[in-house]
Write a structure and sequence with these properties.
The protein is an alpha/beta fold and 366 residues long. It has helices spanning 2-43, 48-71, 77-110, 122-134, 150-155, 158-171, 176-193, 201-205, 238-255, 258-261, 267-273, 288-297, 350-355, and strands at residues 197-199, 214-218, 221-228, 235-236, 276-282, 285-286, 300-302, 313-317, 324-327, 345-347, 359-360. Residues 180-296 form the Restriction endonuclease type IV Mrr domain.
Length: 366
């Protein structure tokens, strides 16, 4: 009887220990699940809890240093207190920094074009601000005056000063924004040479371009082109390809007839039938995953397209008057001027344009 009782007691203890172990495991999983749910919930609240938790780790490490100073063989209590005070400030700053990093990462995931703002260094950003606000010509002044001195403007002939301004524009240091704009112009020029009519949608609409830098049309075909002028060590990732596909879909929806809008399940075939194609053109390379995405989504890819020299002067013939007018790349109507008529062309030099009978816009003829 005693032996049986002892056996039952041992079995009970074993089962009880097993249940306690399972209960602890469940409690651990419940705690982890609660933490995970809290992280996911905090994501929509700008991550303050997670940022605070990481900041607490920073504070803890800082306090370890303070404890060492306070309790070492020859204590430095004053220094330890200073370290603790500094630690409190570091905790606040760490929480703010991590909070902002999470918010930025979230926004960049939703809007991939924002990653472009990480490309420039501080000096380049300052250069862009200077170009935008510091050295602009007055609203009623000739834009050439930005690139030549007052003395040069008054002493040189119209041809010479316009040419000098163009050369300084082309050779001058440019911000990432300016390089990106020139890259769009260059790629657009390449398509125009292939007979496409190009709309410089990105330059005209700024950050509201929805990823459509160029809209190129020829023989009923439309190319939605996104241009990325990035340094050679950077890779284009799939989120940028996805953005281009999305804006191609949006372009189709905006241009589709109502009866076609009711057949969206046939979208891939409809997109092909309407000859609308997304093209990703970049100075660098795509990642392997991005290339796979591009193939799956029917996006054409043009890699390693470097920014090259090209004739920038647009020689345009007025439809209304037949006048021959040339536009320099910093002139107001440059990007909106399309060269789609016989006799229109890109000139390398001001003299080349003038020899063919083109003049600069009346406003700036001097």
């Amino acid at each position: 009887m005693a032996l049986e009782k002892s056996h039952l007691n041992a079995e009970y203890q074993t089962k009880n220990a097993e249940l306690n172990s399972r209960a602890k495991a469940l409690d651990k999983w419940a705690t982890e699940l609660t933490r995970l749910e809290k992280v996911l919930a905090e994501k929509s609240k700008s991550f303050p809890w997670l940022a605070g938790a990481i900041a607490d780790v920073v504070l803890l490490n800082n306090n370890k240093i303070a404890d060492y100073l306070a309790f070492k063989p020859h204590p430095a209590k004053s220094s330890a207190q200073t370290v603790r005070e500094v630690g409190k400030e570091k905790r606040i700053l760490a929480a703010q920094l991590k909070h902002l990093q999470y918010v930025i990462n979230q926004y960049e995931g939703l809007f991939p074009f924002l990653t472009e703002f990480r490309e420039g260094e501080i000096e380049e950003a300052l250069l862009e601000i200077k170009d935008t606000f510091g050295e602009q010509a007055p609203q009623e002044a000739d834009p050439v005056s930005v690139y030549v001195t007052a003395g040069e403007y008054n002493s040189l002939s119209v041809t010479e000063r316009n040419q000098r301004a163009l050369e300084r524009y082309m050779q001058g240091r440019k911000s990432p924004y300016q390089l990106g704009r020139d890259y769009e112009r260059y790629v657009g020029y390449l398509y125009e040479c292939e007979g496409y009519t190009v709309t410089y949608f990105g330059i005209e609409n700024g950050k509201e371009d929805m990823g459509r830098d160029l809209i190129c049309r020829k023989n009923g075909n439309t190319l939605i082109v996104q241009c990325k002028y990035w340094s050679k060590h950077k890779l284009i990732h799939e989120k940028h390809v996805n953005q281009l596909f999305g804006t191609t879909v949006k372009f189709y929806l905006d241009s589709a007839q109502k009866k076609l809008a009711e057949q969206l399940h046939l979208f891939p075939q409809l997109l092909s039938a309407n000859n609308i194609t997304g093209v990703f053109c970049t100075s660098t390379d795509l990642s392997d995953t991005a290339r796979k995405f591009a193939r799956a989504l029917g996006i054409q890819v043009r890699e390693q397209v470097k920014l090259g020299a090209f004739p920038m002067i647009k020689c345009h013939i007025s439809t209304a008057t037949g006048e021959r007018i040339y536009h320099l790349p910093f002139d107001q109507m440059y990007d909106r001027t399309k060269l789609d008529k016989a006799g229109e062309f890109y000139a390398l030099t001001v003299a080349e344009a003038e020899v063919q009978g083109f003049r600069r816009a009346w406003r700036w003829r001097g």
